[in-house]
Design goal:
single chain; alpha+beta; Aminopeptidase; 8-stranded mixed β-sheet; 29% helix
Length: 182
């Protein structure tokens, strides 16, 4: 961990601010891997390291955009973020990507998510965190429900994924529910 500067830490993970040091070929490869990004709303996908660097430089400083590292291997496995923070209304939007496919199925996404949500609700006083997930992403839907997110609605034929328009499930988790469960 000598070169890491953790923003948050869990039992098995370090979460540190995404920076130019993360502008690496493996990250670019994640963004171009159909399995990794099939359900992500990545928008414009960088074609090279210069475009990835420009993307990282363009991250709004008010966002919490973190690289997820395993403690055991000191390996960057994905990213997690809280963005569109609205302090007036106490709102924020959540997103995650586990790009390292060898790390799938180990519970890292849930562990990082719980840690970041706890920070948002307890330290930042966020009242409500929302997310959108492609209806076909059954694994993610189950994880979000286990964490405590509730379905608020469905945006019908909202986004184009895998050659077809798909429904997006909008979900939310409230600070009061989170604190009452903890």
């Amino acid at each position: 961990m000598s070169e890491l500067n953790p923003f948050l830490e869990t039992e098995r993970l370090y979460l540190e601010k995404l920076s130019l040091k993360h502008c690496q070929n493996y990250y670019l490869n994640w963004l171009h891997d159909q399995d990794v990004n099939q359900f992500l709303e990545t928008g414009h996908i960088p074609n090279d390291l210069t475009q990835l660097e420009n993307f990282i430089k363009s991250i709004n400083p008010s966002e919490i955009f973190l690289a997820i590292y395993t403690k055991e291997e000191n390996k960057h496995i994905g990213n997690i973020r809280i963005h569109s923070i609205n302090t007036k209304h106490g709102l924020a939007e959540y997103g995650i990507m586990i790009g390292d496919k060898e790390s799938w199925g180990n519970g890292y996404a849930k562990e990082a998510t719980v840690n970041l949500l706890d920070h948002c609700f307890k330290k930042l006083n966020i009242r409500k965190t929302t997310l959108g997930v492609v209806e076909d992403n059954v694994g993610a839907l189950k994880m979000y429900e286990k964490i405590g997110f509730i379905k608020e609605g469905t945006l019908v034929n909202h986004c184009f994924y895998n050659g077809a328009y798909k429904n997006i499930v909008r979900m939310a988790l409230f600070q009061t529910d989170w604190l009452n469960e903890k």
